[in-house]
Write a structure and sequence with these properties.
Helix content is about 20%, strand content about 35%. The protein contains seven helices and 20 strands. The strands form five sheets. Strands 8, 11, 13, 15, 16, 18 and 20 form a seven-stranded antiparallel sheet that branches. The chain has a five-stranded antiparallel sheet with strand order 6-5-4-3-7, with no helix packed on it. Strand 1 and strand 2 form a beta hairpin. It starts with a helix and ends in a 5-residue tail after the last strand.
């Protein structure tokens, strides 16, 4: 078993050590290349374009793991408390070679279980009886201590090195420009960046379904006809809109989009809605908004209770490409997300 762990570590180091980006056309961590990168960021960096790259879940994938202005995942460190302390070169290093300096508390652990399975991730909780591990996709797994045969801390960051090798030189310049622009980052505040989707259902948004009573992405959704449907995560586009897609979004149908909103107390809150088709929105299973018409920047006042609240939208999808955007008016103690994580 020990030999296996050494082999895994060596393989990971070989694949992920990433001292420089693989593409000859990309920047690397040599002093001359960093000089060019810093000059490019200062002279022609486009923070708005960089924000789109940050939100792009297919290429840079930053928002899959990192939170910024309340938007993003819970795998890596919260960037709001880090970026102000880093200069351009330090940000470049953290992107190109993330294992050089791992933020305290974000070490990767590899766990071998008695059933032969190997798990890797961040160790969130560690008690006498169990361990809570979060993997690179944000999935949390509770492992009983009696099921663990070996635990080892890895020198390799959970963030894959060379991830930004998918980006062009200009895209990397724009991404770093965004990460150094507090004003551009504020544009993220309040956005719903990903949500859960299930469907398809009938085109009529007024028809109720059993799942409206207690929408839960961890449970199978049951339609009024008895059909069993899974909830799937769906990411917003770079413009902040969720485009209905996949098996849940058949043409001439409707689908449900589910998000969760946490409040530190009972209160009023404000949502802003953008939708390209008919929409009915429910807060904690009660319909609070319904229209057959598209809308842009539609203001909606809602009542939240302390703790977690469900924000469920039934979206008509007549042409197969309907979009929905939800954002909240920022206020201390509010959070809009797809993940019930504290």
């Amino acid at each position: 078993m020990k030999t296996y762990f050494v082999a895994v570590a060596l393989a990971a180091a070989t694949v992920f050590s990433g001292e420089a980006l693989s593409s000859e056309d990309q920047f690397n961590l040599e002093p001359a290349s960093l000089d060019q990168l810093e000059k490019a960021v200062r002279s022609k960096g486009d923070p708005a374009r960089g924000r789109e790259i940050f939100l792009d879940t297919g290429d840079a994938q930053c928002a899959n793991c990192h939170r910024l202005q309340g938007v993003g995942g819970h795998v890596g460190p919260d960037l709001d408390s880090i970026l102000g302390k880093l200069d351009i070169r330090q940000i470049a290093e953290s992107l190109v070679a993330p294992s050089r300096k791992i933020t305290e508390g974000y070490d990767t652990y590899t766990i071998a279980r008695t059933d032969g399975k190997i798990l890797s991730g961040l160790k969130l909780k560690d008690s006498d009886k169990e361990l809570l591990l979060r993997d690179g996709l944000g999935k949390d797994t509770v492992i009983q201590k009696e099921q663990i045969t070996r635990i080892e801390k890895s020198p390799v960051s959970l963030m894959p090195a060379r991830l930004v090798s998918r980006l062009s030189r200009n895209d990397l310049v724009n991404l770093i420009s965004f990460l150094k622009s507090p004003a551009a980052q504020l544009e993220l505040k309040g956005r719903l960046s990903r949500a859960w989707i299930t469907g398809p259902f009938s085109r009529s948004i007024s028809r109720t379904e059993p799942l409206e009573k207690n929408p839960d992405p961890a449970k199978v959704a049951v339609s009024s006809s008895g059909k069993l449907l899974q909830w799937k995560l769906i990411n917003a586009r770079a413009d902040g809109l969720i485009q209905l897609a996949g098996p849940a979004a058949a043409k001439k149908s409707s689908a449900y989009i589910l998000a969760l909103m946490k409040s530190d107390r009972d209160r009023e809150a404000v949502l802003w809605l953008d939708h390209s088709s008919a929409l009915r929105l429910l807060v904690n299973s009660e319909t609070v908004y319904s229209t057959k018409n598209p809308a842009t920047n539609s203001r909606l006042s809602i009542r939240l209770r302390k703790g977690w609240n469900t924000i469920l939208s039934r979206v008509s999808n007549p042409t197969g490409n309907s979009t929905l955007g939800i954002r909240y008016e920022p206020a201390r103690g509010l959070r809009l997300t797809a993940d019930r994580q504290d």
